[in-house]
Specification:
The complex is a heterodimer.
Chain A (H helix, E strand, L loop, with lengths): L1 E3 L1 H4 L3 E5 L4 E5 L4
Antiparallel strand pairs in A: 2-3
Chain B lengths: L7 E5 L21 E5 L17 H23 L5 H5 L17 E7 L4 E8 L6 E3 L23 E2 L5 H4 L5 E3 L2 E7 L5 E14 L2 E15 L7 E4 L7 H9 L3 E4 L7 E6 L8 E4 L10 E3 L1 E6 L2 E2 L4 H5 L4 E3 L6 E3 L1 H14 L4 E3 L8 E3 L5 E5 L1 E5 L4 E3 L6 E5 L2 E4 L1 E3 L6
Parallel strand pairs in B: 4-11, 5-10, 19-27
Antiparallel strand pairs in B: 1-22, 2-3, 2-13, 3-4, 3-9, 5-11, 6-9, 7-8, 8-9, 9-10, 12-13, 15-18, 16-17, 16-23, 20-21, 21-26, 23-24, 25-26
The chains are: A mainly beta, B alpha+beta.
Chain lengths: 30, 411
């Protein structure tokens, strides 16, 4: 399997939208 | 210089390394959000007391151990038939149930008990059960704060053996009518203790009464000085699941660009307005993990040539807060590395750094430029990485493409 690591996630607001079964990436989140 | 080119990052070389001092401003998204800091950075409460942060090589080696254990766990869950030829050679699947801790990169501060006391814990989307070290303790490692003392909390309660939470626990056993848990991580780290409940305080206005967690009384391994670990996996016992009735299902986090900055972790928060979404995929063999479908990669605005089957046949993609470096199928990584290197011809190459084999020496440059890298997900979501997400910098003379190959996927 591929793994999306935390270095690549830096500065993104990573939203685990469980209700809608989706994952979102918002740039410049912090 | 490509200052205005949307397909390039242009940056000051002096900004590659994090500040030695904490430069964090409040980055939380709302009042119930927890501040997230790098475990080994200057903003970490564990920073002052630590016995020395791990070196970059150690971080990357532990990262590989975590990746190996994720692969083992996935392989073990999918394996239904034991190959007698392999068995006869003494090859066996590992007994460990959990995944390796890696470097436990990011920590949050949470309050437990009444009155609440603060604890610095690793947060991990790759596991479910939360735990802290508790007193009395038969075998605890040295940690940052005093141990959690159930006797000092007016809202503490043990979870009885007959409780649903105990029965649903994979490793739950019963002893003197106390529900005992055990989590064995893939790097031989382990925590054992009683399953308990108490009030979890996220902020002055956000409390989670009756939060179920492990009260560890026998804990050994690579936990550093953290007071424990909070799991945000997909199973019922995770913080994400327990917080759902109060805050809504799901959570959002943001990891800072530098180890001297801070981010946030927020339960049940609405997604940011600019978020691009892809499907959260469920794998019943590995119910803790959050899967998604990576379908392509762009470098410098151009999609690299990789058949989509390279991603789809690789077994999917797991998003993990505890793995440092993204791992790609070998053919995808080879194409990414090749495309990236083509754009970087003006810079002197530097030696490899552990698992990172594409490194550059920016010594003597005031500014530098690298092509943007974007990850493409099923459904059209595009994640155009920050430049801190493209390079892993050990020093100015050794800044490496922050991706690695999964290696020989036939192995």
């Amino acid at each position: 399997i591929a793994i999306l690591g935390n270095t690549q996630q830096k500065t993104f607001a990573v939203a685990y939208d469980v209700a809608n079964q989706r994952i979102g990436f918002g740039a410049n989140g912090c | 210089a490509r200052t205005n080119d949307p397909n390039w990052h242009v940056f000051r070389v002096s900004s590659l390394l994090p500040s030695p001092a904490c430069t964090a401003s409040k980055a939380t998204s709302n009042s119930s959000a927890l501040s997230v800091v790098h475990q080994h950075g200057p903003c970490s409460p564990l920073h002052a007391r630590r016995g020395g942060a791990p070196s970059h090589v150690e971080i990357l080696e532990r990262d590989q151990a975590r990746v190996n254990s994720i692969h083992r766990k996935v392989a073990a869950a999918g394996a239904s038939v034991v190959d007698p030829a392999r068995a006869s050679k003494g090859v066996s699947l590992p007994a460990q149930r959990g995944i390796s801790l890696g470097t436990g990169n990011y920590i949050v501060s949470v309050g437990l008990g009444t009155p609440a006391k603060q604890y610095s814990v690793v947060f991990d989307t790759g596991s479910d059960l939360s735990w802290v070290q508790c007193t009395p303790c038969s075998d605890c490692y040295q940690q940052n704060d005093p141990l959690f003392d159930p006797a000092q909390s007016s809202t503490y309660a043990a979870v009885p053996c007959g409780a649903q939470e105990c029965q649903e626990l994979d490793s739950g056993t019963c002893s003197s009518n106390k529900c005992r848990y055990e989590v064995a991580y893939g790097d031989q780290s382990q925590t054992d203790g009683n399953l308990v409940r108490d009030t979890l305080t996220l902020s002055a206005s956000a409390k989670l009464p009756g939060f179920v967690f492990g009260c560890g009384d026998s804990n050994t391994g690579l936990f550093g000085q953290a007071d424990g670990l909070f799991g945000l996996g997909r199973e019922k016992v995770s913080l994400a699941s327990q917080g759902a009735p109060n805050y809504g299902p799901g959570f959002t986090y943001c990891l800072p660009s530098s180890s001297s900055g801070n981010g946030y972790l927020s339960l049940g928060d609405a997604a940011p307005a600019n978020a691009q979404f892809t499907a959260m995929v469920t794998n019943s063999d590995n119910p803790s993990f959050y899967y998604l479908n990576l379908v392509g990669i762009k470098v410098g605005g151009r999609e690299i040539r990789v058949p989509t089957t390279v991603f789809s046949t690789a077994g999917g993609t797991v998003i993990d807060s505890g793995t440092v470096i993204t791992r790609l199928p070998p053919r995808a990584y080879a194409a990414l590395r090749s495309a990236f290197a083509r754009y970087m011809g003006q810079y002197k190459k530097a030696p490899a750094l552990s698992i990172l084999d594409t490194c550059y020496d920016f010594t003597g440059h005031a500014t530098a430029q690298i092509p943007k890298v974007a990850l493409l997900f099923e459904g059209g979501a595009t994640m155009s990485l920050d430049f801190t997400g493209v390079l892993y910098v050990s020093q100015v003379s050794q800044a490496c493409l922050a991706f690695a190959s999964n290696g020989d996927d036939t192995s």
